[in-house]
Amino acid sequence: MNSVHFSPGTAVITRISDKQWHALDDDRVVGRGDVSRRPDGRIFLSIDSWHGAVFDQLAATMLTTLPAPLYTVVDEADLDLTASWQRAGFTTRRREWEYLVPTDPLVTGLDSALSPEGVHIVPMGKAQEGPLREVYDAIRAEVDASVGWDSMPAEVLVRPDGTVPVDPAKYAVAAQFDRYIGLVRVVRVTRLPRIGLLAVRADQHRRGIARALLAHVLEALRRAGIETASAEVNESNTAAVALFDSVGAERVSSNLELVRH
């Protein structure tokens, strides 16, 4: 273990593993720092401490050890935590809105949302894995070439071989003839399902396909007895923001992604 000692009366920062640091005061843990690597390779930090001085010590130690750029995510309403990261040299990279989305079509106005002519929705669990993989990879490449895939929610993890698992049970897709042209991913790990990804191929934009996909999954959730879903939308994704605002989704919080170069 590697320890970094500060001036008398302050905590002792100890690296207990490759991914974790502890701040100790008389052998009592008074703060913890953790690091994780996202599927896209970016390094994210988190620090848990009751005292600002201990936070600063942990941050200073971690920053001298880890390669830049470094990232973290904070609840925008947590002003103290945001200020702590700003003291460490982090600045805002993006804002992500957290929505609560009603599933009742009479509330959302999606009872009349029809698929465009020639397009049909394939329900969750019914998509073929090969074409699903193809549309996922195509959309990812299009996003990477524009705003960058790291602007999307971190909704999936990579396998050890570097591939991304695409589970048909979690996706509904929009199909045109024998080609998938859009998808929506719904995760039900808690009692509040999360819409983690809603995307359409670039050459199919402005046809109402995303709206039809959203209408489909919300109706499926309503039939399952679920009244509300959650969704995360990047503030800069004006089309997605407009879509969720238009269906009566409620903005309940916002997260900031901060970066230190």
Automatic annotation (TrEMBL):
<feature type="domain" description="N-acetyltransferase">
    <location>
        <begin position="119"/>
        <end position="261"/>
    </location>
</feature>
<protein>
    <submittedName>
        <fullName>GNAT family N-acetyltransferase</fullName>
    </submittedName>
</protein>
<dbReference type="Pfam" id="PF00583">
    <property type="entry name" value="Acetyltransf_1"/>
</dbReference>
<dbReference type="InterPro" id="IPR050832">
    <property type="entry name" value="Bact_Acetyltransf"/>
</dbReference>
<dbReference type="InterPro" id="IPR016181">
    <property type="entry name" value="Acyl_CoA_acyltransferase"/>
</dbReference>
<dbReference type="InterPro" id="IPR000182">
    <property type="entry name" value="GNAT_dom"/>
</dbReference>
<keyword id="KW-0012">Acyltransferase</keyword>
<keyword id="KW-0808">Transferase</keyword>
